[in-house]
Amino acid sequence: MIRGLVYLVIFIGLSAIAFSIYIGKKNFDGKIYEKSYELGISYDKYKKAEKFYNLTLSSPTFKVGENDLIFKINEDAMNQYRVNRIKVRVSWIANNEYDLEYEATPKEGSNFLTKIKIPFSGKWNLIFFLPYEGEVFPLFKRIEVDYR
Fold it and tell me: pLDDT 10s digit of each residue in the chain, 148 long?
């Protein structure tokens, strides 16, 4: 009786291991990153920069054509890195054919302003290039552009 129970537990354990190996092989996409540790460190630094700057847009809605882009960053971050100009790239999510770059300047406090032009409606990325710990990080904000 006990011997049968031990065999059953061993069988269930081995079956679980075999099933885990099967699922792992089935879902493996073949990508092995050469410098995975460095990628992880870079990602962590990116997330810290994102949190540190706490970049917020004054308005989430944009229209086709010229728009005022007003955004705010953390005032401590602005002072620590002496940020007085920020490069902003407007990028269509499908490809980079329509990428345009602008330079935002301080408006008041930790608010920045630039005029941007968006050629057509759809989903776009606003990419803000900001310094953090000796590197420049691109911080992304996705926007929806209305055709009106």
Answer: 788 889 999 999 999 999 998 888 887 777 777 788 888 888 899 899 999 999 999 987 899 999 999 999 999 988 898 888 999 999 998 888 999 999 999 998 899 999 999 999 999 999 999 999 888 989 999 998 987 6
121 burial via Cβ count (<10 Å: 0-12, 13-18, 19+) = middle
Residues for the chain: how many in total? Answer: 148
pLDDT of residue 56: 94
* Tokens read off for 9: 């537990």
H-run or E-run covering 7: helix 2-27
Report pLDDT digits (tens) over 67-81: 999 999 999 988 898
List the domain range (segments joined by +) for residue 140. Answer: 52-146
**Number of Cβ atoms within 10 Å of the Cβ of 15:** 10
C-beta of residue 70 within 8 angstroms of C-beta of residue 113: yes
Residue 30: inside a domain, yes or no? Answer: no
DSSP 22: H
Q: What is the CATH number of the domain that holds 113?
A: 2.60.40.1930
Total of domains in the chain: 1
